[in-house]
UniProtKB/TrEMBL annotation:
Family under the similarity heading: Belongs to the short-chain dehydrogenases/reductases (SDR) family.
Protein's recorded name: Short chain dehydrogenase
Organism: Mycolicibacterium litorale
Family matches, as InterPro entries: HSDL2, NAD(P)-bd_dom_sf, SDR_fam
Compartments it resides in: Peroxisome
Length: 285
């Protein structure tokens, strides 16, 4: 049986893993010998976004892991079930569930369409629920089971509550599920944690913003989230659960102090829901 401090031969199921942070985490785990099942809708190239779930598999395998693509929608029970069945069929079980798939719409309430509201709730909350629920029977059989959800800390600062209430509701819904599951499954020894970036991350979503070029210059590489995720997922599940981690804080606790390798310049843009700068993580304030 592999050590709890390694990802060798451990199997991850990742939602929305065809690009961005989800793919970066998959590649980061693959570098440590993990198997990865990628569930994503992008079976064919998107006109505005790079990569497909199939190119993602190639990237994961190039990094040293094994990977399988499942073209499907995290909102659909049958697609989620197929992803889980694929993991069990190809790799014999599931050790890690990564809830990465997410939709964002930050229009003011009076301009936000019900369709976009529903999309955020369906992908962010329902998708997280469906994938986690489907993985749970197999996580129970793992030596070191983890569920990691890409969701923010519960920051009740009125600014964030009022900035984009519908999106905030959907992301905090993911966080509340994770924190609730940590308590519900404490006796089973399954770790449930959230991970959120301190700063903007250089993804297609940032690139497609109105000031995308400028935003990318002040954004860090997705590898910072991957490195933080690998650190969390390598920890003993019973000792690491019910937490809302910030990427830089995780890496500081692992001995990293120089984040220049991840880009973003001297003053990378703080991400939404984050009030504090890296100085706090380094205990310099």
């Amino acid at each position: 049986m592999p050590s709890q401090r390694t990802l060798t031969d451990r199997t991850l199921v990742v939602s929305g893993g065809s690009r961005g942070i989800g793919l970066a985490i998959a590649i980061g785990a693959a570098r440590h010998g993990a198997n990865v099942v990628l569930l994503a809708k992008t079976g064919e190239p998107h006109p505005k976004l790079p990569g497909t779930v199939h190119t993602a598999v190639a990237d994961v395998e190039a990094a040293g892991g094994k990977a399988v693509a499942v073209v499907g929608d995290v909102r659909k029970e049958e697609d989620v079930a197929r992803a889980v069945e694929t993991a069990v069929e190809h790799f014999g079980g599931i050790d890690i569930c990564i809830n990465n798939a997410s939709a964002i719409a930050t229009e003011p309430t009076e301009q936000l369409s019900p369709k976009k509201f529903d999309l955020m709730m369906d992908i962010n909350v329902r998708g997280t629920f469906l994938l986690t629920k489907a993985c749970l029977p197999h996580l129970r059989e793992s030596a070191n089971p983890h569920v990691l959800t890409l969701a923010p800390p519960m920051n009740m600062n009125p600014y964030w509550l009022g900035a984009h209430p519908a999106y905030t509701l959907s992301k905090y819904g993911m966080t509340l599920l994770s924190l609730g599951w940590a308590q519900e499954y404490a006796d089973a020894g399954i770790a449930f944690n959230c991970l959120w970036p301190e700063t903007y991350i250089a993804t297609a979503a940032v690139a497609n913003m109105a000031d995308g070029d400028k935003a990318l210059q002040a954004a860090r590489d997705p590898r910072i989230m991957a490195d933080a995720a690998v650190e969390v997922l390598s920890r003993p599940a019973r000792e690491t659960t019910g937490r809302c981690f910030i990427d830089t804080e995780v890496l500081v606790s692992a001995g990293v102090e120089d984040f220049s390798r991840y880009g973003g310049g001297e003053n990378p843009t703080l991400d939404i829901f984050v009030d504090t700068a890296i100085e706090k993580a380094l205990d310099r304030t």
